[in-house]
């Protein structure tokens, strides 16, 4: 025991968060209606699939923790609810995009306590505590709340605005980190009724791993869904390389076209299509 203790004394423990290309932080209180839009948004992004190089954080109301999560991130996106006041108060669901250049003048840290900590205080603390390690590329999305009553759900305008912000984050921050889809795609149908996709095709077109499968117009269609809560089938990982497979025997009515088939992505339908007729 003494030897083990002595050996342990020479070891250092790294408790710093890992660096990343993009850090997305959702702030707010899930128990108070629209105030929870940040954490809810992060959950939706998790369901869509997190690309390598991105990190998602449910910041909740722990602003101090958010400040230290920012260490090592190249780009930071923070999402929170807001309540504008006065005659110029915004309509519920209004989205404010606050670029980093406008975040230079932030509240002072003096006199703050944990119950008054907000996203802007978190950035100010990060700049003070992290110094040069604090990211310089920071963008904040604020969504005007309709209500923050205890136990309420997200209001319809805030939910709509949240989905708009999700699309912006995907387009401006996450899409560049996802694998690029190749034009020459193939899938394999197995004798036991599975369809198999290689890792690159699955990651580029089906990041959430939730899919719908149908046969239509002589083609087998595999359609990405936003996440497991959408229902459908689950693309399961079948090997360490990250290839995926899902059981589609019933969709094919037990007429399984065993073997490797050419596939193409239909942008108009948002689906991977596999011609079942080899002459097509």
UniProtKB/TrEMBL annotation:
<protein>
    <submittedName>
        <fullName>Hydrogenase maturation protease</fullName>
    </submittedName>
</protein>
<keyword id="KW-0064">Aspartyl protease</keyword>
<dbReference type="InterPro" id="IPR023430">
    <property type="entry name" value="Pept_HybD-like_dom_sf"/>
</dbReference>
<dbReference type="Pfam" id="PF01750">
    <property type="entry name" value="HycI"/>
</dbReference>
<keyword id="KW-0378">Hydrolase</keyword>
<dbReference type="InterPro" id="IPR000671">
    <property type="entry name" value="Peptidase_A31"/>
</dbReference>
<dbReference type="GO" id="GO:0006508">
    <property type="term" value="P:proteolysis"/>
</dbReference>
<comment type="similarity">
    <text>Belongs to the peptidase A31 family.</text>
</comment>
<dbReference type="GO" id="GO:0008233">
    <property type="term" value="F:peptidase activity"/>
</dbReference>
<keyword id="KW-0645">Protease</keyword>
